[in-house]
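Example complex used in Figure S2.
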Amino acid sequence: MPEARSAAPPAASRAGPAGSPLARSVLSVLAIAALLLAPFLVDALLGRAWVRVLDLVMLYTMLALGLNIVVGFAGLLDLGYIAFFAVGAYLYALCASPHFGLHLPFWLLLPAAALVAGLFGMLLGAPTLKLRGDYLAIVTLGFGEIIRIFLNNLNAPVNLTNGPQGITLIRPIEVAGVSMAKMHSIGPVSFPSLYNYYYLFLVLTLLVIFVSARLQHSRVGRAWVAIREDELAASASGVNTRNLKLLAFAMGASFGGIAGSLYASFQGFVSPESFGLMESIMVLCMVVLGGMGNIRGVVLGAALLVTLPEALRYIGPLQRSLFGQVHVEPSDLRLLLFGVALVLVMRWRPAGLWPSAVRRREFVAARAAAGDMPGGPGISTDGKPSP
Amino acid sequence: MLAVRSLQLGYGAIVAVRGIDLDVGAGELVAVIGANGAGKTTSLRGIAGALPARTGSIVFDGEDITGLPVHQRVARGMSLVPEGRGIFARLTVAENLDMGAYLRRDAAGVRADLERSYALFPRLGERRRQLAGTLSGGEQQMLAIARALMGRPRLLLLDEPSMGLAPLVTRLIFDTIRSIAAERVSILLIEQNARAALELASRAYVLEGGRVTLAGPSADLLSSEAVRKAYLGE
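Predicted assembly (621 residues):
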């Protein structure tokens, strides 16, 4: 009986867009089959390079879901998020490469990356507790740059990070003695490195999605939304805003750290230039474009923003075959089309491609009220001096 | 129940409340009146814990809570209805009320209290699936009060519940406050509408320039020459 209330929301959402149970189970079997066969299908249809893109989609999905906790759930705008990706990546790189001659195992480094990145998240969160909105954005932006500049310069007096040259020869992940970097075969089916990484990333991505979903519907998730809406009202409802904001930073950062450590072993190489402001903005775009606060939307956003630039590479050969030469470099086109896509989404789907229920309501309400609504949550309670 | 002693509060270099003494007894409805900028809202923020005390003490139920953050005061039975209502605009009415019971673990009791709030405020019941931001000002104020009550407070802190509301709606809100007080919930009411507040409260404090200049039973204040001139427009 006392459990009934907390169990109600998931049950309701399950019953929501249902259809018949049979149709649903057929659909989920198909979805699982598609996920399991994806590398084979993609390889056969589009080529090996696209399997790599598939791996990167998983990696960025984990990263974007981490940022979604901070920005989407708790409403804390973080422009330096890539720093946690960098922390995870360098932790793995330093502990599993010839640079220090360390070769710690993957199962130790993955939780360590989550933990250390989480601590860095709190390190960023603690001094920014009283900041909101644009002020918070500026501080987080600075934090992201500080981490990158440290990585760039910590090669002297003691060579910690190897500076701008980055760290090479990072050990590939080994799970139970099976190296991800080698080709393996089970019977007649062979699994190249990119396939191995795909399955590893798939498992971890599903785990991250599961944790995100559980968090969203938990007591913690409700408290985050309350903080996003109105911080004073949240604390007046008994929410420990300080701890919950720190928790949001730490959880988001730990997802980023996990993604970072996977990235380091996947690439075999890390350098500071992979962790610039542009990367932070890219991840933020995945969250915003897909639908802030909605896990499915964020997955969609990550998938789109990773695959689109790759698809644009075909523009080069296409121009050559049409005009005999390349007029516009595909890499130049990338940012242009990216900007156009953002403008289009903001114009026609301002809440994101696949927004959460709350975000959708927010934009519908704003349009209906047409300036009638107050400027933002908590505008009258935002520490305004009223002696 | 609540005993505030020489409480001083401020923002940066500004001292807004210059040492006030204030008491609320169990089941008592006490009002604080005063002009704009007298320090009313600041005092309430200090009592609720949203603003740290410069000096002085706040004792609640015999326990010194001066240094406690807002949420720990809520856990001890003190609930704030912030100025300008502070509802969660993009959540539904039901979700807002649910947040009010954030600290409670008794699901059955929460459900019963939810029904009670809908009985107390039938308008909220009709609009339980509606977004709180789309409610009228009066309905938002009702929601803010109902949400605070969901935490089963023993002391309710109300900051200008009549602000920006039509006279008819104000009367409705004040009737509700009276019925809450009748259920033995202590109430500290900050109000600019001095007459309505004095008619409602048993005792009142007059705040001027961050100091308590007058205090006593409401009936005495209502008949006091100074109050009549300054706050009742007579």
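The radius of gyration of chain B is 17 Å. Residues 92 and 131 of chain B are 4 Å apart (CA to CA).
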